[in-house]
Every structure is written in structure tokens, then in C-alpha cells.
Amino acid sequence: MLQLYDKLLELPLFIGISTDELSDIVGQTKFSFHKLAADKPLVSKEEKCTQLFFLMSGTLRVVSYADSHRYRIEEELSAPAVIQPEHFFGLMQRYTKDFTAQTDCSLLSLDKSEVLRLLDNYLIFRLNLLNCISMQAQRMGRIPWRQQSDDIRQQFVSFLRLRCLTQAGHKVLRIKMEDLAHELHQSRLNISRMLNDLQCEGLLTISRGIITVPQLEKLR
Amino acid sequence: MLQLYDKLLELPLFIGISTDELSDIVGQTKFSFHKLAADKPLVSKEEKCTQLFFLMSGTLRVVSYADSHRYRIEEELSAPAVIQPEHFFGLMQRYTKDFTAQTDCSLLSLDKSEVLRLLDNYLIFRLNLLNCISMQAQRMGRIPWRQQSDDIRQQFVSFLRLRCLTQAGHKVLRIKMEDLAHELHQSRLNISRMLNDLQCEGLLTISRGIITVPQLEKLR
């Protein structure tokens, strides 16, 4: 139980909660516990968000798809993390990405009724959730107004960063060269040159339709 | 007072609240009342969000700026409306647009402490705010994944729609032709042809650096 306390305090939604309140929460809240073996799916794109999942240990593989399904991005999400809290309320209460266990994972989940109870009873939980969703809305709302780079390498880096859940770590972009050229409004030749330059610098590797970036934080 | 009741019920944050709860809210909440004469500013970009403003009657002029300040969009926001509720919590508790009275306006506002009290006491208000901010985060989060059009006219329409607060009504885009060409990754000549075509169809008017769209909903 002590371990659960410490883990919960690392989660963005429980940050700043006092020890007294936390023991109260742990005592009264119906957390469900889940173990997920490597390669087992947690939730899929379009599935309904009926529970709020907290990743307590392990790493999830997250796959995001373009609406046209012409490309997708795979990335890793390590504990502690909350799974798409911005889709728990609002009009689109469905996940927009696939989440699969990369390593063995342990998770906690809360039913909607339990989340509503926590929101009702604990000011800090309520503020943490409001802050968390507001930050998402604010960050995404500023994106259309950002300055566009003239540099094709910067355009590619922005393309990737904008679509990744986290801004660091291992990313795999599965896209055909012509689709990437189309997305960046560049010629196929220019795209191919830019990617080869990045490969020479050791920042990514290219094979048929797969661009692997070992550390997104190094790609600038 | 009866009029205030009816007006509040039209606001997204009070939708679905029962008459009993509403009379409770109106009785116990310290609403501030504001009259704003035409052309007077309400709040400016970068100003801190310390109050939640509700536009109860009249029309505001909203100006949004690109980060580079190379272009801006002016639009109108009519009552009833809430001013940037997604900036009331989170990391960036500042307005990102200028709001000025277009006509004489009347507004209500709530201090942060009053908003926190409403969130604490009224489930529906809490859900409405969570829904409202979640919808913003969801809508903006899907944008990078949308399919890009090859058609320059569609690209221009998407450019405008993506940056407008409302998807209908009168919009003014102030931008130099070369900056628009840069934003859309097109040649100046193609941009100029496309805009002239739209002007011929009566969908917009162009003058030096000013593109006026009388009804965005007609521009497709």
C-alpha cells in the first residue's frame, strides 16, 4: 500500500495532494489493478474511454494514425503516465491512439463514477485535471500561429514533434517518401536528400517506408 | 433578475442546470456586471486571466495574431459567449487574443474564487467546464492528423478556418500576399490567381494586404 501511495504522488493528477488526503483517497476509492504482459493491447483507437488508466510501471507502445491512414507514428510512453485524460470528458470520449504493452506493465484504473467522486471531494484532484486538460488545449491552440520555417529539415522536425505525444525518446514514422513530400509541400528529391543528410549525422535511419529516430530530443 | 436567469441558461457553462440550482447560484454568487461602450477594449493578448468573462449581449471584435506578427485575423463574437475558458487554468493563464467591444456590450464576470466555489458546489457547472475545455483539446489535437488538400483554394480555406474562433460570419485577414504564399507553400502568382477567382465568385474582397470574407460559412 505504501508503494501505491508513492506511485500515485508521481502522477500529474495527484501531485500536491497531502498525505492525509491521499490516505483518505486510497482508502475510499475503488481502484482497479491491471497487469499487462508485453505485447498485449491496452486500448485501441476509437474504443470508448470508460475508465481513466494510470500507467504505474513499465512502458507502453503508442501508435497514432493520420486520418488518411497514409502514415503512422509509433512511440513509447513510460510510467508514470495517464492515458489521454483529455478524452475522458467532452464530445469525443474515445481514444485516438493504440496503446499496447511494450514491456510488462502494471496499471490502475478508475471508473467514471470514481473520477466524478474524486472531482467532487478533492480540490487538488479537480485543479490537477482542469490544469492538465487546459494545458493540452492551450498548447494545441497556439500551434497554427507558430512561425513556419523555410528550412526543410526544420519542417520535418516540426512535423514529427507536432504529432508526438512526448518530445523525447525513440520514434518510428511509417510513411512513403511521396506522402512525406506531400505533407511537407516539398519535392521527393529534396525530402530524400534531407533524410539522407540526417542519416549521415546519425540522427535517424531510413529503410523502406520506415524512418526510425532513436532520440527525438537530439533531432533539431 | 428573471432576465439574468434566462441569459445564464444560454451559456455553455450553465446549460442543463436546474431552475432550483440556478436560483441558488444567482443568489449566492458574486457576479460582477460590466457595460462596455462600442470600441472600448475588454482584454488584450498577454493580459492575465483573473476573471472569467461572459458576454451577455452585444458583439465583440476578436483579433488573433501570428507569433511572427506578420498576419492577423479579425472576427466577431456575439452573445452569449464565454471568453477563452481554456486559459483560466493551466500553464498559460493569459488571453491569446484581443477582445474589444464592436457594439455596446454587457458582460458578467466571476473572480477565480467564485469559479472555484461553483466548481466545488455544482456538478453540472463542473462537468460543463470539463466538457468545454476537453472539446477544445480534442478538436485541436486532431488537426495535425487531418488530410492535407492538394487544391490551393482548399488550402486557403483550411488556413482560415483553423485560425478562426468561430466557423461562420465576417472575417478579415490582414496579410501580405508574399506572407500568405509562404504560409501555404505556394507561389505568389498562384495565390493571387486563387484569391481573384474567389473575389469573382463574390466570396471575398481583396485590397492592399486585406482579405475580407463576408461569410466564412460560404467559403468552401
UniProtKB/TrEMBL annotation, chains A, B:
Superkingdom of the source species: Bacteria
Annotated CDD domains: CAP_ED
MF-aspect GO terms: DNA binding
Species of the source: Prevotella fusca JCM 17724
Cyclic nucleotide-binding domain location: 13-119
GO BP, sorted A to Z: regulation of DNA-templated transcription
Name of this protein: Crp/Fnr family transcriptional regulator
KW DNA-binding (keyword) present: yes
A Pfam family matched in the record: cNMP_binding
InterPro entries, A to Z: cNMP-bd_dom, cNMP-bd_dom_sf, HTH_CRP, RmlC-like_jellyroll, WH_DNA-bd_sf
Keyword Endoplasmic reticulum appears in the UniProt entry: no
UniProtKB keywords: DNA-binding, Transcription, Transcription regulation
